[in-house]
Amino acid sequence: MFSKILIANRGEIALRVLRACKELGIQTVAVHSTADADAMHVRLADESVCIGPPSARESYLNIPQLLAACEITGADAVHPGYGFLSENARFAEILEAHNITFIGPTAEHIRIMGDKIEAKLTAEKLGIPVVPGSDGAVKPTDDAHAIARNIGYPVLVKAAAGGGGRGMKVAKSEADLDTALSTARAEAKAAFGDDALYIEKYLGKPRHIEIQVLGDGKGNAIHLGERDCSLQRRHQKVWEEAPSPALNESQRKEIGSIVAVAMRKLKYRGVGTIEFLYEDGNFYFIEMNTRLQVEHPVTEMITGIDLVNEQIRIAAGASLSIEQSDITFEGHAIECRINAEDPRNFTPSPGTITYYHPPGGLGVRVDSGVYQGYRIPPYYDSLIGKLIVHGRSRVECMMRLRRCLDEFVVDGIQSTIPLFRDLLQNQDIANGMYDIHWLEKYLEAKSD
Question: Could you tell me which of 369, 316, 367 has the C-alpha nearest to residue 24?
Answer without folding.
Answer: 316
